[in-house]
Amino acid sequence: MKVALVHDWLNQIGGAESVLIALKELFPEAPVYTSIYDPTAMPAVMQRWEIRTSAMDRIPRIHQHHQAALPLYPFVWEQFDFSGFDLVLSNKSGFCHGIITPPETLHLCYCLTPTRYLWNTDSYLARENVGRLRRTLLPPLLTALRLWDHAAAQRVDGYAAISRAVQDRIENFYQQESTIIYPPVATERFAAGEREAFFFIVSRLIPYKRIDLAVAAFNQLGLPLVIAGEGRDRAALEAAAGPNVRFLGKVSDDEVADWMGRARAFIFPGEEDFGITPVEAAAAGTPVIAFGRGGARDTVIEGETGLFFDEPTADSLADAVRRFESSSFDRVQMQRHAQRFDTAQFKAQITAWVEAQVTENKQRRTQNSSASSAALNSEQDSSADRA
User: Fold this and answer.
1) Of 17, 60, 140, 158, which residue is 20 to 30 A from 375 by alpha carbon distance?
2) If 0-12 CB within 10 Å is exposed, 13-18 middle and 19+ buried, where does residue 299 land?
3) Residue 183 DSSP label
4) If DSSP codes are grouped into helix, strand and coil, which group holds residue 179?
C-alpha cells in the first residue's frame, strides 16, 4: 500500500509526537503531512523524513503562535491532495482528521482526543485565564468550528482511541465507534533504583496539568516533592511553593528515568486523555498517586500500581498521600503491568487494526459493487420487459 501520515502540527514535542515517531517506524516510506513544522524544536530523527507542510507554515512567527491561527485550520486541512494513496493514517488531537481523501483512499484516525477546546470549552477557558475580550469573541467562532469538526469526523473510515475516556468522547461528540489502542511507552528506558523519601512529578508546567494542586497539597504535608519540567506556570508555582518543593527545570530523558526510579511515588494531579508518565513510573517500579479520571483509569490499578484521589483539590490529593503512607506495592507486579503499554505492543496492535480495516474496506467495496451490478442488471431486465 501507498501510505501517508497526517499530524496536526510539529512545533513542540510531547506524547502525540512519540506516537507519530512510532507510526513512522511502522510506515517508513510514508510522507508526513502537517500544518506547520519547526525543525529546531523537533527531534533530529524528523529531519530525515519527507514532511509536507501547508501554506500556513509560511506565516511569520506561526511556529510560536499557532493557536492564533485557529480559524484557518479547517481551510488548511481541506487543501491537501491525497490522490494516489491507498491509506491515510491521521494522528489527531486538533483538526487534521478534517482532510478530504478520494473515495478509493481509506482514512483511519488514531484519535488522541476530540479537539479539547471545542468540546470542553468552559473548563479549558477557566484554566487558561482567557481575557474578557477573547471570551466574548470566541463563542461564535467555537460554535462554527464545532459544527465543522463534527462534519469532518464523519469523513473518517475508522477510529482508534487512546483510552476509554477518549473512546467515550468519540462516541458522544462524533457518534462514531472506535477501537482502543494504547499509545506507545518506551518502558525499556526505566528501571527501579534505590528508593528515597521524595515524591516526583515530571510535566509541562501549564494550567491543565494541575501542578498547582500538588504544590498546595505538599505545602500542607511538608513532605519532599521534586518537580521536573518547564512551562509558563513555573514562576507562579515556585512563588506558591514551600521550601520542601524543589523545581529542577528542564531535564534529560536519562535524568527523568533516574529520578523516577528513586522516587517514593509519582504524583499525577491532572486529568489526561491517557498519560504516559504513570506507565513510565510503573516501568520504574514506582507507585502512582493520580487523579481518578481520564486516562489514569486505564493506566493505574487501584491498590496494585497506585492510588486515586477523587476530587481536583489539594485536600483530596493530600488525603491520598496520607493513605499511601500505610500502603505497600510490589515493584515486579508494577513493572509487569507497564509492559502492556510497551512500544512493541502498540505497533502490533496498530498493524492488526490497520490490516482488519483494510480487509473490511475491501469486502465492503466488493459488496457495494456486487449490489450495484445486481441493481443495474435488474433495471436492464425491467427495461427489456417493458419493451
Assistant:
1) 158
2) buried
3) P
4) strand
